[in-house]
Amino acid sequence: MGCSSCSTGKDGQPRGCKNNGTCGTDGCNKLTVFDWLSNMSLPNGQKPFDCVEVRFKNSRKEFFRNVDNVPLAIGDVVATQAKSGHDVGIVTLVGELVKVQMKRKKVAADDNTLPKIYRKASQRDIDIWQKSRDKEAEVQKRSREIAISLKLQMKLSDVEFQGDGSKATFYYTAEERVDFRQLIKDMAKAFGIRIEMRQIGYRQEAQRLGGIGSCGRELCCSTWLTDFRSVSTASARYQQLALNPQKLAGQCGKLKCCLNYELDMYLEALKDFPSQDSKLQTKKGVAFCQKADIFKKTLWFSYRDDPATWHALDKDNVLEIIALNKKGQKIDNLEDYAQDNVSEEKMAFENVVGQDSLTRFDRPKKKKRNKKRRKNRPKASSNAQ
Question: Which NCBIfam families does the record associate with it (predicted)?
Answer without folding.
Answer: RicT_YaaT_fam
